[in-house]
Amino acid sequence: MIRLVALDIDGTLTNVPTQLSERTVKAIAGAQERGIFVTIATGRGYFGSRMIAEQMRIDGPMIVYGGALTVDAGTGKTLQSLCLPSDAVRGVLDYAGELRVHAQIYQDDQVISERRTMFFERYCARLNLPNRVEPGLRSWAEYRDVPKVLVITPPEEQQEVRRRFAERFGGVLAVTTSQPGYVEINNPKATKGMALAALAETMGIPVEQVCAVGDSYLDIDMIRWAGLGACVADSVPDVKAVSDLLLPACDDEGVACLLEALSRGELPEPAV
Fold first, then answer.
1. How far apart are CA 75 and CA 58, in angstroms?
2. Pick from 75, 144, 67, 141: which is nearest to 105 by CA?
3. Segments of 32-107 assigned E as strands
4. Are 64 and 49 in contact (CB under 8 A)?
5. Average per-residue pLDDT in the chain?
6. What are 80-119's pLDDT values in tens digits?
7. How confident is the model at residue 272, as a pLDDT?
8. Taking Cα atoms as reference points, which of 91, 94, 133, 96 lies closest to residue 112?
9. Which candidate, 174, 185, 173, 177, places its Cα nearest to that of 160?
10. What's the CA gap between 4 and 205, in Å, rounded?
11. How confident is the model at residue 164 (pLDDT cuts 50, 70, 90)?
């Protein structure tokens, strides 16, 4: 029996930045009525996730910033934190400057960039995120409580930029990709899988009663760790390769199909 379900947002729960479908909201409520704790495990921050969390009526923890923070969904209070060391943030920002790619940090749930680029404007506008520009960002004496650095590139350059950051920081920092053009850089212990394992332990739920659902590279370790790892049909191939269950695509409401089945004590038929 599944007792805990962790869901990625973008490309998994919804392709609409701030809205869940009526069917998905109803399916989440049905699972919650059955005693299943349904939560978020996302690369977004708390502010960017809050509207989705409210529609889900999450009463308890959710995982944000790719596993760097676990926060209370109602208050935003930090329950667990694995932020980046200050010298690591400086190193990543300096290397982004060398490569002439856009990089931004997060502090107190604000997005901070040293200049106002097209990438920065579009990113913040998508979820109306609080933000500011700090021209002297790379010269700060200390970077406090930074959960991740996000590098944004044209989608066709994403894998090459990821490779270069991995070569420079591999073994010291976690370098992965999420949405097209996004290269995510975290504390190596800050992953969705590790955060979900810690959450399950806190709640006293064994791994075999945990389900994780995602669609992209940032979701791989939590899908692999969970007792039931699932992905939507339009996931990247590497995610499909580690998933136990293939659901209908995001726009075909694969998450709703899963939760409706779990509420009946069943598993959905695998997508083809």
1. 11
2. 144
3. 37-40, 61-64, 69-72, 78-81, 102-107
4. yes
5. 96
6. 999 999 999 999 999 999 999 999 999 999 999 999 999 9
7. 59
8. 133
9. 177
10. 8
11. very high
